[in-house]
Every structure is written in C-alpha cells, then in structure tokens.
Amino acid sequence: MSLAPLQSINERQLNTRSNAVQTPVKNAAHSSAQHLENKENVPHSNHKRVDFQQQNPHLQDQQPPVKKKKEKLSALCKTPPSLIKTRGRDYHRGHFLGEGGFARCFQIKDESGKIFAAKTVAKISIKSEKTRKKLLSEIQIHKSMRHFNVVQFIDCFEDDTNVYILLEICPNGSLMELLKKRRTVTEPEVRYFMTQICGAIKYMHSRRVIHRDLKLGNIFFDKNYNLKIGDFGLAAVLANDRERKYTVCGTPNYIAPEVLMGKHSGHSYEVDIWSIGVMIYALLIGKPPFQSKDVNMIYERIKNRDFAFPKDKYISNEAKTLIHDILSTDPLERPSIEEIIDYVWFRGIFPSCTLSTVMSEDPNYEQIISAEESYINFQNCLERSGLLNKAKDWQQVSIQQLPEDVDKLGSSYYRPSTILPQSLSPGDTRNKYQEIVDLDAQRKLNDLARESRIRRAKQATLKKDLVANSTNVIKSEISLRILASECSLTLNGILEAEAQKKMGGLPPSRLPPIKHPMIVTKWVDYSNKHGFSYQLSTEDIGVLFNNGCTVLRLADAEEFWYISYDKSEGWVASHYLLKEKPQELLRHLEVVDFFSKYMKANLSRVSTFGREEYHKDDVFLRRYTRYKTFVMFELSDGTFQFNFKDHHKLAISEGGKLVTYISPSHESLTYPLVEVLKYGTIPSYPESNFMEKIVIIKEALKQKSSVIRVD
C-alpha cells in the first residue's frame, strides 16, 4: 500500500478532505501488481447492478448486458470520524493517503500535533476466524520490529466499525513512486537503497520473520529520505530455521519460483532474497525482470528464469552478475545478505545519503564522490543498517550529514569540507582503502562464494533425491557398524585422492598398483518373493535371501557358503560340500540353481573381467540399495559398485584408492582415482560424466556411513 507524499497542512485542512486527493482505484493496467493471497486478488463485493431493460426498455436491443463490477475489500472501510477517541487519547483524522486490497490509510494527528499514518481495516471485511488471525499476526509481527529501516509500529486500537494500526508516517512516497517519476534510478542510489533494505531484511530474518511481500511499493521514504520496509500483511514467523512455509502468496512480479511450487518444495528466507534481485533490476531497468500483461506468463517466466537485460539500458557488468546470482531458481544458490553486500558492485560510487530532490532529479554522484569517500559512506550505511561485521577490523567513522535545508550550493552539490576522521593518518590510508583498489581480489572471493553455494545446493538436491527405493534389511547392529565403517573408510579415501589432486597428484612411484576388483556382473531383484540374486566376476552365484542369510555357490568347486548374521561378529560363514549339503538348506540351493539358470539364459555379463585369482577369500554381497538413478552394491571385501541408469558403472576399491569404470559396451578399465580426478574424466570416455557421478558416490557413502543403528 503506497503512501502519497505528505503536504504541509494547517489545522483547518487537517480535518478537510481535499478535492484534489481522490481515492486511487487500480485499473486493469495495474493487474500485474495485484496480490495473490487475500491482498488484491481477493473475492470482492459486487456493485449494485444497473438493470437497463427496466430503466430504458427502448435500449434493450442496443445495450449489451452490464457485467457485475467487483470492488476491493478496502472499499468496505468507512472513512473514520474526524475525531477518533480511544483509551483516553484523541486523534484527528487528516487526509486520505492511499489504499491496498484490505485497508485504507489516513493521516491522523494526536493532541501534541504529532502526525502518524493510520492503516484502517473495516471490521465487516473480517468475515472469518482465519482472516482475524491473519490481521492479528500482522499486528504482532510488526509490533515486534525495532529497526532503523522498518516502518515503526506505534499503536493499534478499534472502534465499532474499523481496526486502526498506527504507524510511523513516511511522507515522501515509496520506491514505486520514485520509479514512476524517474523511470530509472542510478546505480549509486540503488546501492544506497539496497544496503538499507538488506539491513532490515537481515534483522527480520534474525527474528525468524519472512516478509514475503517485499516490493518497491512496500518500501517508503521517511521524512529524512531514509528507506523503511512496511506492510507485514503476508509476513510469517518460522518456528525454527528448518521450517518451510507452503502458502502461495505475494505479488506476481516479485514471487520466487519456490513459492509457485507451493506444496512441492515449500519456501523460507530465500524468497526475500529473490525480491532483492527483482527490485535491483526494476530500479535500474525501469520494470521488473519478468513483467508481462498476462499474470500466467509472469509465472512461467519466473519458473523458467526467463529474463534478459535490454540492450538500450545501461547496466554495469557487476550489477548484472549480482542480479543473475540472486535470481537463481534454486534457493540454495542465492547469496545470503552478508554475501550480497560483499559483491564487487557495492564497492562502486556510494553516496552518504538520499537527496531531497530524489523524486525529480538524477544525481551525478560519479563526479563528486571519490572512491575513498564512497568507502567511508558504505561503512557508515552498513553500520546504521545493522550490517557492519564488528569482527572485521573496520575503522568506525562518522561523516557530516547534509543540512536538512541544503541539497545544493550554487550549481554544484554540497560537499562536506571534512571527509576523513583525524584518526586516519596518511600512513594508514593505503591499508584502509586496500579493499577498494583490489577489486580483482573481491571478484575472486565472489566467485569462490558462488561456487560454494552451487556445490552446497547440488549436495542438498542429492540428499533430497537420494532416497532408497529398496534395500535388504540388516538385523545386526554390529553388521551396520561394519558397513558404516567401510563406507567411511572409502569416503575418506576419495577425499584424500581429491586433496592429492589439488596438490598436483602423486608421483608414479607412489601410485597404488592396479588391481581389478571383484564386481557384480549380473543381478535379479526378486525380493518380493525370494531375495536378491547376483553373479560375481568370479562367476560365483549368490542369493541374498529376504531373511538376511546368503548362499554363495562357488563356480570352480562343488561347494558353497552359507552366511548369516551374528550379534557379536556381524556375519558368520559356514562352508559345505554340495554332496554333504544339510537338509535344511536344500530349498535355498534350489533357489540358487533357479537363478543361476535364469541369469545364464537371459542376462549378459556387464564386464570384460575374466575369471581370475582376485582374492584368497571368497566375496559375497553384504548390502544392495536401489535408488532412483542407480543401484549401490556393498561387497564384503570393501568394494563399492554403482550401476547408473545411463548404463555407465563405477566401482571404488582398495579403500578409495582405485576406481574401475565399466562402459555400456562392457569395456572395463581400472585406474588410480587421483589420476582420473586430475584428468577430470575417464580417459576416452567423456560421456561417462565421471565428475558428476563421483559427487553422487560421495553423498551415498556419506549417508551410509552415518547409519549405524538398527531401527
């Protein structure tokens, strides 16, 4: 809800509604700024329909039927009385200021002459308990806010017809009005604006409050042209930082993509970060990035991140980089408030305040403010907005404020005669301003922060997607501990190889010797009846039965192993000759024979590895886990095999030192992992997407290494 600029008025004018001030009615041209949830796209009351057939029968064939006209709930709000009495304090109603979907706003003046803004909500519009709770929530949230850049909550009360929310008066309009009058805003001004806004958002988020309707029309200039965030009608409080909200709400041009996903993903603090990017773009370009006459088209553009920078509007590369990063579809890839103000863009020309001519004139700050002055101004703005990191060794300085009645001296802008505090000696200057001149280093820090966010986002996506479709149940806690230990050992081996790669790799003499691992070459999941059957590269056939035991029939001898869980040792294996098989295992061996014949007749080997002397001990499958995009096998010798749906397979063996690649054409190759990491892909097989798969493998091992207890 935008407030019109406050004009000086006398006592007679205060209680007189000016003919020049009309209640603004938003037309179809402004439909893209309408709210979604009980704000401006709410069911409206109908105007009384005019029946042309009864009043003018002769026009029956000439006039089309009149459509029912809708009006906003704010239209139900009756103009408050000229004298509002409440709890022993009287207020005099002044001019009408503006309206939104729910409320109208008026000037009111107390007996001491102090002027406030009164947000007025008609009681008749509060038709349900849900609406009442929403209004109370807005009041409670706004009342709890105490920040220099948040509109101050003063009081709230009610009479027979209205509820009144008294707020700090912001008489100089909003950023939306600024954009309408100026069309575009200079980058130094936007830096100053956004620093103040970021300070307020950081404060809100520190109190676990999401605003959810940050837009140019909800950010106001106070009497000194400082910016204040207002309108907490859609704000929500999180019970903890992990909670997600699922209500689809906001203003179309500013809605984050995860809000549009609604029930699928939920949303949190990052929706306010998204709004920062939209506002920066809108102020610099003149319109929001996803603007369209059709609201559904806006939503499609938001979901597809479909925006561009027009060639006819100048915008610095640093600003483009910041906007691109903030408007990331994945919330986890967006920079935090602290990371935003660390962007190189904020190291540009930075004013000390907003001039009172902001609504009408483009300032030329580039010619009057130096880099050193900008640095001081930036630090002061950070401090006032609550963004200054006290841990950093920044000199706390103050700069002379512009006199309230002087913005210009002659034809040149007012410039303080003293800029630097006396505590800054010439010898200190280079160190104090080192951050300004070393923009390349700051860009590198921004790049590193971006890469880290993208990496964290990918890991979070992996965690979300890495949900097992099926796996065998492990009934022994010691067995789970053994498996977790093996996963942890192999994960550490991969991390060690990555560290070695960063150091330039290993000399040939230190590379691990190549040793082909034992792998699963065929498998059949028949766990809905018997269990999971597999053939190893030794051609041994195993069945992991649903009761947890395994029968492994050896290919080179007339004998087999029976492996079961043991509470103290994990697994216990018993060796039998086929001719001496126990009666109680006959049925198990029949199932093994069945699967052996089935796999021989229907499945092909996935590897070129032949029958070799792999190990002295026989190997069996301890656990299998089926995920959406791959199957994970954990073998008893510590080998981990990953069969991906794209028919590329990887096996990690020897504690993470070796990696084996099996191609869709069954070509099998084994390398030291550090060498593949140095190369960046499997030699001659770039289509394997090795680096992407190793990230998935690490996450799977990480998850498995933390599961050490029986449910």
Secondary-structure blueprint:
Layout: H1 11-14, E1 45-46, H2 52-55, E2 70-71, E3 83-86, E4 89-99, E5 103-110, E6 115-122, H3 129-143, E7 153-158, E8 162-168, H4 175-182, H5 187-206, E9 209-210, E10 219-221, E11 227-229, E12 236-237, H6 257-261, H7 270-285, H8 295-303, H9 317-326, H10 337-341, H11 371-384, E13 408-409, E14 412-413, H12 426-432, H13 434-437, H14 439-465, E15 470-471, H15 477-502, E16 520-526, E17 531-536, E18 541-545, E19 550-553, E20 559-566, E21 570-577, H16 586-602, E22 621-626, E23 630-635, E24 640-644, E25 649-653, E26 658-662, E27 668-672, H17 673-679, H18 690-705
Antiparallel strand pairs: 1-2, 3-4, 4-5, 5-6, 6-8, 7-8, 9-12, 10-11, 13-14, 15-22, 16-17, 17-18, 18-19, 19-20, 20-21, 22-23, 23-24, 24-25, 25-26, 26-27
Helix pairs in contact: 5-7, 5-11, 7-9, 15-17, 15-18
Structural class: alpha+beta
Strand content: 15-25%
Strand line-up of the largest beta sheet: 15-22-23-24-25-26-27
The number of strands is 27
Could you name the CATH class of the largest domain?
Alpha Beta
Average pLDDT, all residues: 83
CATH-assigned fold name of the largest domain? Arylsulfatase, C-terminal domain
Helix content: 25-40%
Low-confidence segments, given as residue ranges, are 1-64, 391-435
Q: What about the largest sheet?
A: 7 strands, antiparallel
Please tell me what the overall shape is.
elongated
CATH superfamily annotation of the largest domain: POLO box domain
Total separate domains: 3
As a whole number of angstroms, the C-alpha radius of gyration is 35 Å
Distance between the termini: 54 Å
- CATH architectural group of the largest domain: 2-Layer Sandwich
